[in-house]
């Protein structure tokens, strides 16, 4: 894209939308993924309306210019990274909560609304928006929809896609499509909403989202259990859930993650443990019995210590500790490659014990935390980027973790998406018919391949 092109784009849009200052572009060129090079964009457009988005896409389609939709760029797969000559299309300024309807228990929002802001706004009306990615304080609903983001509450309530009723989407040619519904049920036609959810900006740009809400749940009770072996923690997860319990949170942290968190906030966790589970129950008067059942399973599988908290403040502190894991890992001062495998829960034990093997084989540190109740783990390969040999081994360990996840009947990504980082691995997960169908959908919706090209689908 040339300077003239940027001038043409500027002419199409109201003032103050198009930026091409190199520093501004550089600051918007990357998400948070490691090992994902970013290109040099030609312009950044800060859209403020559906019309802006439509005008940009129509123009880009006519001129075959790649467009990279961006929310808060908190993604972990390189899917929001700039491509050479691309337009970065930021939705952050489209940040209005259009409506909260307590009777129908739905909210309508623009894509740039921050997840935590929506959750807080509906809570004021006694309602609950459950999807709670660890990035909820920074990530946008548009980004959450486009990655089908999960989080800690998902073990009970489901992921972002389970709450999306309908969308407004601008297609590659600039036309505006409304999908889905506002009603509790609706099966009219193909489920175009589901097609766009998790598409990582490759099929259209989301400009409005209608989400389902729930009544606020009861104040949760919290427990933590510490285990001498990670296998015991995994067995506790499987046993507790197989007994029919639906906790609102069931999270895992390994010893290194607990130690890293303790460096930031000393919560007095016992030393010498291999793993920890954090569980919450939000079923009111029945919560103590549910946590007692958790304690029973954990003790039977070998927990060294189980602590049930009777204070909401202490429970929140423990949740904060879990949310600090990302920051704590970063403070280790190493480069991090974050995996996102999700396996059937009965194979969780093989997953977590397999990590020790991978760590030893590739001689890199592998830490692990994750949404154990969903079987969705985030093994993190920590390595010294200045050492080429260690960097190569880190990439091999990252790949070995995905291979292990697939061999256990799981998926390469439970919530972070494929993006740039795992494209080739998508080719190993899908069968030939699935790949063919995916490419056909992409061609049908974006024949000129302008929407986030070279992301998600392998090849090309
Ligand atoms: C500390 C931390 C914790 C995290 N915890 C979690 C977690 O618990 N669960 C989880 O799922 N993820 C987690 N993530 C990853 C990330 O926050 C999520 O993927 C999030 O949904 C990305 O939102 P975003 O607004 O930052 O989107 P971006 O990173 O800007 O974009 C993500 C993808 O969506 C596309 N996109 C963005 N907006 C639109 C739009 N309006 N229309 C079309 N496409 C669009 C982009 O092109 C890109 O493909 C975490 C990240 C961090 C840094």
UniProtKB/TrEMBL annotation:
It comes from the Bacteria. Its cofactor is FAD. Coiled coil: none annotated. Keywords: FAD, Flavoprotein, Oxidoreductase. SUPFAM superfamilies: FAD-binding/transporter-associated domain-like, FAD-linked oxidases, C-terminal domain. InterPro entries: FAD-bd_oxidored_4_C (IPR004113), FAD-bd_PCMH (IPR016166), FAD-bd_PCMH-like_sf (IPR036318), FAD-bd_PCMH_sub2 (IPR016169), FAD-linked_Oxase-like_C (IPR016164), FAD-linked_OxidoTrans_Type4 (IPR051914), Oxid_FAD_bind_N (IPR006094), Vanillyl_alc_oxidase_C-sub2 (IPR016171). Residues 37-216 form the FAD-binding PCMH-type domain. This is FAD-binding oxidoreductase. It comes from Saccharopolyspora griseoalba.
